[in-house]
Design a protein that fits this description.
alpha+beta, 140 residues, Translation Initiation Factor IF3, 4 helices, Ubiquitin-like (UB roll)
Amino acid sequence: MSREEAFARAKEAGLDLIEIVPTAKPPVARIMSFDKFRYQKEKEAKKERLAQKTTELKHIQVSARAADNDVQIKIKQLEKFLAEGHPIEIRLRLRGREKGHKEWAFEKMNTFLSMITTEYKVMSPPKVGGFGLTAQIIKK
């Protein structure tokens, strides 16, 4: 229908003429209350925002000399984070003279990674950082 006719029908009904798809040929318009239209759009946007699952990077910090029980607690926490779908950064903290024994630190990190029972994918392999070793993993 023509634009003038659409405006006339909208005015007759006491509503607004709202352009829905301006890029279509011919453009698509709807006769309805603009307030109702705006409310529906805001409601859809809010629903989309809530539906988006934000995954933040979780950090697990382990000392190179941690006792077995402490390591098991860290593994349980790590597996909980993996189950929730979070990417995880594992930090193996080295102190003092431990920083001079990089091969020992890599061995400790590989031992820690092998203790994880949940299937995971290594996003970034263990590498030396300022305070020790870091590795990033994510659930497969």
